[in-house]
Amino acid sequence: xxxxxxxxxxxxxxxxxxxxxxxxxxxxxxxxxxxxxxxxxxxxxxxxxxxxxxxxxxxxxxxxxxxxxxxxxxxxxxxxxxxxxxxxxxxxxxxxxxxxxxxxxxxxxxxxxxxxxxx
Length: 119
Fold this sequence. Notes:
Layout: E1 3-7, E2 18-22, H1 32-35, E3 41-43, E4 49-52, E5 63-64, E6 67-68, E7 72-78, E8 89-95, H2 96-104
Antiparallel strand pairs: 1-2, 3-4, 5-6, 7-8
């Protein structure tokens, strides 16, 4: 996968962050609708989940009656005091395929345990 990086204007003293844009098969950027960046998670007026998109590939995941119907990993991470992102909370979702792709690159494998109590 090819990634293009675009710098953003940031406040003085803040670390420069980057926007990553996934490229299509021929190296052309995917359209905003295909990436899903404008609506990573979308809720109906009554608060029911309507749409969830993978932040990496932009895949729109299956949601029926407000329930996600496929494997996905949701991350909500509050950066701590010793980070340059102190005070920031990052939220993102990955489809199962992208999660597998990312974790396959880890030097140390993910610690996996079996959940015996399924609701």
